[in-house]
Amino acid sequence: MTGPTATRTPAGEAVAGATDLFHALTGSEPEGVWSAPGRANLIGEHTDYNDGFVLPFAIQHRTAAAARLRGDGRIRVASTFAPEPVEVALADLDALFRAGGRGTGAPSAPTVPEWAAYPLGVAWALRALIPDWAGGTLPGVDIAIASDVPVGAGLSSSAAIEGAAASALNELWGLGLDPVTLAQVGRRAENEAVGAPTGIMDQMASMLGHADAAVFLDCRSLETRSIPLGFAEAGLEVLVIDTGVKHAHSTGGYGERRASCERGAAALGVAALRDVTPADLPRATELLDDVDFRRVRHVVTEDQRVLDTVAALAADGPRAIGDLLVASHASMRDDFEISIPELDTAVDTALAHGAVGARMTGGGFGGAAIALVDHDRVAAVSDAVRAAFSAAGFAEPHLFTVVPSDGPRRDV
Question: Structural domains in the chain?
């Protein structure tokens, strides 16, 4: 049996990659290297921007940012996944991102590639928190980025970039901001600089993660609670099945789903779908068309599944949550319609070969599924998924395990 890809040591790889790139970029040593993790979402999909509940956890795969101040008031960013660095004046960030999205501010504003909009957007979002920005007192900075977070797999490579860049700038600029504020900065960068209408789950999971625990987040109040997971103690692992089908949050169906949720909340007379309970769904059928109703039903029932998962973990441990994961996937497939055949095959095959539970994770339209699998069944489940993908004519998936891990840190 071939089994899953062996778990790597991503933090070390990312830190070394960012440091090497910084040397190549500047010919000097960075002042420090900061890293932040990606995240897997155990349950609670598309509930975050509806003011609901989510239960993600940070993973061991990280993005690192090597950085050093410079004296000319410019910010230069480089990454190992792009051929050329991007450099702009700090004073131009407002024009670049004023209207939201890359290069949609003033007509004379520069444009930047999407990857660069994440770290540059973080610098821009920090601007609003610095009263003397207009006085030009902030020094420039060079930032080199490397990552081991799989891109497009629904593991929030974007929030990892934001978290690493925010952590670096927070320390280099002496801002002293707390993790929740930095998560809000990352969300603003993603929403307004990149133009992706995401909620705050990803950034909060990355900034507040702890080993062997999930972050139970109330997306309205931003109150959090660390929820022990106990996977290792129960002999379980989280297997990620990356389909290789890339998705893009800033385009297509994600925005359509969000608009549908907003229509549903307006029709029901509530501020957000967080305020709708399962008991309200019969009334919703009378007020909404079929599509909007099913979108609303997913969010409302998914919120309840998050609460039920937290309760089940506390009362009975991780083996008790399998049915909730399966129900979550069915809701995303049938009501929210964000799954794809590759994700359905991954989930169905994992369950057929002994997984305790499985579901797609992330925004949908591609990306990855997660399966909660007994340690001694990981190789067998992985082989079965590969065989099922081959039989269906899909590209070979990338399989690996993730471990609930700590949030951002300074590595060097």
Answer: 10-227 (3.30.230.10), 229-402 (3.30.70.890)
